[in-house]
Amino acid sequence: MVNKKRKICIVTGSRAEYGLLKSVIKLVDKSSELELQLVVTGMHLSSEYGFTINEILNDNFHINKKLETLISSDTPVGVSKSIGLGVLGFSETLEELNPDLIVILGDRYEILAIAICALISRIPIAHISGGEVTEGAIDESIRHSITKMSSIHFVAAEEYKRRVIQLGEDKNKVFNVGGLGAKVDNKSDLFTKKYLENDLNFKFKSKNIVITFHPETLDLNSTEYQIENLLFSLEYFDNIGLIFTMPNSDNRGKIIDSKIQKFCFKNKNSIYVKSLGQKKYYSCLNIVDGVVGNSSSGICEAPSFKIGTVNIGDRQKGRLRCESVVDVNNNEKEITDAIKLIISEKFKSDIKNVLNPYQVKNTPENIVRILEEINLDGITKKKFFDLGYQA
Fold this sequence. Notes:
Number of strands: 13
Strand content: 15-25%
Structural class: alpha/beta
CATH topology of the largest domain: Rossmann fold
Shape: globular
Order of helices and strands: EHEHEHEHEHEHEHEHEHEHEHEEHHH
Number of helices: 14
Helix content: 25-40%
Largest sheet: 7 strands, parallel
CATH superfamily of the largest domain: Glycogen Phosphorylase B
Radius of gyration: 21 Å
CATH class of the largest domain: Alpha Beta
Strand order of the largest sheet: 3-2-1-4-5-6-7
């Protein structure tokens, strides 16, 4: 009798998330024990956000289902309606695909929609990157909510493992596998500076930085003020190459996007890119002198390239970080001084031996091994593991 393959449904809704998941998707696809089901949704299917489904198709993965859920509105009402569309679409998709297990990463609202549907359908969820803290964004609450709906947890650090267990999860189902973006296996496979210059139509300067800035979704009233402070600071660096990537489809993200595009039109040392994709993004990190903004990649991925990060504001507040990350308030002078610091030769020398706290050996391989071996019988019937009350 031939053993039936375990059907693993992996959902991706954004460029950054797909870049992290790609190694897992590839290994699941190659596994003799697993059958890959790939669902693509969210920003991937929007031309406004670069139609990044093309990156997935170029990687030659078979897409089982494409789900349009994204409303072209970054208001709270628009985001809430997108979640509703996601629930409608995912409920039918799960009935059609009937997976044995769903794998989701992170904390975006389209991922919340799939988690809700999987919970109601009693399909076990394996959640990647739970237990993390980001006090300046609604992602914080979404992430912990998904943790409570999930049965298997792949976390990026011991601190995060303790937090998931603190939320009442079974310690035997919480695995510290490290961060998927923390290790770059072979930098020689990355694109050269010459290739990037031709591809991006951008001439690198002697110093360069990558900028990614998202809304602080728990402080929407200050979005315009925050991006203006950053751009005022960047005007000082007219001799530095500035590579902007597009913000996510969060509340009021269009304000940030519009101001960045106007800045790039006026400042010829800058370029705006809707989506670099993982390989081009890592290739840029391998060349530039630092990362600026409030993206998790500046904290979780940039340290592996031995470059500094200027992390602005509260969006990533609470996330584990190393010495190459310089935290600043959203203040023009603080941002300017921090950029001067991270591109200095002394700072580069000081962080050349920095260790990325998210780096663990064989992260994707360990995730897939557990997906192959873990017993799923009765796994959705969860018990709350109470640590006991301490005053």
